[in-house]
Amino acid sequence: MGIFGRKKSEHEKYIEWYYQTYGEYPQGPDTSGQPYPNTAPNGYQNVQPQQPQYDQMQRQYAYMNYAPQPMPSKARKKSGVSAGAVILIILIVLAVIFILPNIISGYNNAKEKREVQSRAQAYTESDYKAMCKAVSYDEISRHSNAMKGSFVTFSGTVRQELEDGLYRVSTKDYSDDIVIRYSGTRLLTGDKVTVWGESSGFIEGETVLGAKAKVPEITVVYADIIKQSQT
């Protein structure tokens, strides 16, 4: 009920709500074109204004509808995975598939080489060479896994340096290859050598034609160059 028992109009309700909320009177005409007064209506002169709680945007909303309106929330960013994140994930997967196995293999090879060298230090060079059993290509290629860890020796010709300290040695003319790991004096293609070391099982690789191949591998402790390369 309004002043003198009269029912409040929407216009009056708005003025009352606006003044109590913002501590001032609305400016300009309302939506019906009726102007707002510049002074408080009768009966509202002593109303203490509340502290302003809303910003200008909410006042604009209130202008259209006197009931308080919540602030529109900012548009949420679209969810999803960006192109950069997808590329990063792909690179990580490729690294796990192709790079990590090589790192692990390199670590294992270095560890095995250290262990072989450590065991060899328990013997003199002559005693170590005397313990090594002479093996043929057929023997070591057939039983390389069974002979893993055995002290062996053989002679052949260096055919290729696959990488630093890793050589392909042929026991016959360009055939019957054995791969050796040797960290001593560098061997050159064409050197005829006799080596002593431990059988390390098989190493997998590719032939010059791209076919998969498994070749016996020996971690060499001692290598004597019988005849140096002429190239």
Outline the fold blueprint:
Blueprint: H1 10-22, H2 56-64, H3 83-120, H4 125-131, E1 133-134, H5 137-142, E2 151-163, E3 166-172, E4 175-181, E5 192-206, E6 212-227
What can you tell me about this protein's structure?
The chain is rod-shaped, with a radius of gyration of 45 Å. It is 32% helix and 26% strand. It folds into two domains: 3-64, no CATH class; 124-227, Bacterial OB-fold (OB fold (Dihydrolipoamide Acetyltransferase, E2P)). It starts with 9 loop residues before the first helix and ends with a strand. The chain has helices spanning 10-22, 56-64, 83-120, 125-131, 137-142, and strands at residues 133-134, 151-163, 166-172, 175-181, 192-206, 212-227. Strands 2-3-4-6-5 form a five-stranded mixed β-barrel. The protein is α/β, with parallel strands linked by helices and 231 residues long. Mean pLDDT is 76; it is low at 44-54.
Key terms for this structure?
231 residues; alpha/beta; OB fold (Dihydrolipoamide Acetyltransferase, E2P); five-stranded mixed beta barrel; 5 helices; 6 strands; 26% strand; rod-shaped
The rounded distance between the terminal residues' Cα atoms is 116 Å
**What is the CA-based Rg, rounded?**
45 Å
Q: Which fold name corresponds to the CATH topology of the largest domain?
A: OB fold (Dihydrolipoamide Acetyltransferase, E2P)
Q: Considering the protein shown, what is the CATH homologous superfamily of the largest domain?
A: Bacterial OB-fold
Shape: rod-shaped
Give the biggest beta sheet.
Answer: 5 strands, mixed, barrel
Which architecture of the largest domain per CATH? Beta Barrel
What's the CATH class of the largest domain, please?
A: Mainly Beta
- The low-confidence runs, each spanning 5 or more residues with pLDDT under 50, are 44-54
**How would you spell out the order of helices and strands?**
HHHHEHEEEEE
What percentage of the residues does DSSP assign to strands (E)?
A: 25-35%
Please give the domain count. 2
* DSSP E strands, number: 6
Mean pLDDT over all positions: 76
Order of the strands making up the biggest sheet: 2-3-4-6-5
Estimated structural class:
alpha/beta
Helix content percent band: 25-40%
